[in-house]
Amino acid sequence: MKGEAELRGGTRILETMSRTPAGLFSAFTLIVAVPLASGCSDDAPQAESSSSSSGATLSSGGTDSTSSSSGSTGGTSSGTSGQPDAGPPPGGPGPAPARTCAQAKDAMGFFKLTSPKGDYVVRLPADYDVKAPKAYPMVVAIHGCGDTARSFAEWAATSYTGRPAQSYIAISIGGRDGQCWNLQADEAMVLGAIDDVRQCFYAHDRKIVLAGYSSGGLLAYQLGLKYAKRFAGILIEHSSIPGRAALVAGASWKINVAATGGKLDTDFPPSVYNADWAALKGAGFPLQTQELNIDHNGTGDEWEKFLVPKMATWVAP
Questions:
Q1: Taking the mean position of all CA atoms in its chain, how far away is CA 197?
Q2: What distance in Å separates the CA atoms of residue 222 and residue 52, rounded to the nearest whole number?
Q3: Cα 190 to chain center, whole Å?
Q4: Contacting residues for 299 by C-beta, under 8 A, at least 6 apart
Q5: Distances from the Cα of 116 to the Cα of 48, 189, 192, 249, angstroms
Q6: Which of 30, 126, 215, 309 has a CB 3.0–4.6 Å from the CB of 145, allowing a cystine?
Q7: Using one digit for the tens of pLDDT, what is the confidence trace for 99-119?
Q8: Are 4 and 146 in contact (CB under 8 A)?
């Protein structure tokens, strides 16, 4: 069992969830009134809007839509931290790892490392050779409220059936296990883990992708748009863009985005994610979306069958 706490208006929604064999989370809801916390709030418009997604009907009951445009590079993204959006040098994969790090792998190949900013979970591709490493893409996973870094790594960042063919480095950010993320304070945990793991394992400079569910999706959107040059793309499951207008306008390039939304989601409902998708499309971002007939609870299938495959061709400028 694990809890998923989200904020809807001024009310905390605590969903106690259990995973079914199909990878879907079932939930019952306990509603407790609390003040809004900056780490789990979203910039959600109140007006209802219809979905602009169209395409072939999926077996899961949703639609798959793609909106593409050419990206552009440019200056510095806006943000509250004042840190520059300094991307990698153009061209190659960047420097090889500078140190050797211990791998105390469990039975499923996961192990934990610690950066100066906090711990994180790692899983390497099966063919990763520490003696002669090649550069791999990397997924940086950020869990939802109530979940843990280890759990999210298992059901989202590296799904059970996809692990034998895993072709990327996966890390899942710790430091907020069992909690929501704080958008003002927790950027450093994510950026610190990225910098740290790249000292140990060869992550391609221009193929680093952020991935987040729910509260973790808020932080993934914020980091991906605020420091766009550092990333090849953003993968989002059931979440929203905090401070949408400023982040979309301030992104230093039209970063790749793939996102899923649930038609029955009451935490991040269609009115919210459709407004996000419309803003991204209107600004020319390459966007691929999937809208499903499900509620807020995430599924591993969304990651394995839709989100993760989208990053195969993504490269930062």
A1: 17
A2: 23
A3: 11
A4: 22, 23, 24, 25
A5: 43, 9, 7, 32
A6: 215
A7: 999 999 999 999 999 999 999
A8: yes
Q: Which residue has the tokens 């169209």?
A: 54
Instruction: Count CB-CB contacts under 10 A for residue 27.
Output: 17
Terminal C-alpha separation, the chain: 41
Q: Position of tokens 């950027």?
A: 187
- The structure tokens listed for 32 are 């407790």
**Looking at residue 72, what DSSP letter applies?**
-
* Per-residue pLDDT tens digits for 167-177: 999 999 999 99
- Reading the block at residue 291, the tokens are 């809208």
- For residue 10, what are its two tokens? 């001024």
20: left (phi over 0), alpha (psi -120 to 50) or beta: beta
User: Which tokens in the block code for residue 266?
Assistant: 């009451």
Which among 155, 132, 103 is positioned nearest to 301, based on CA atoms? 155
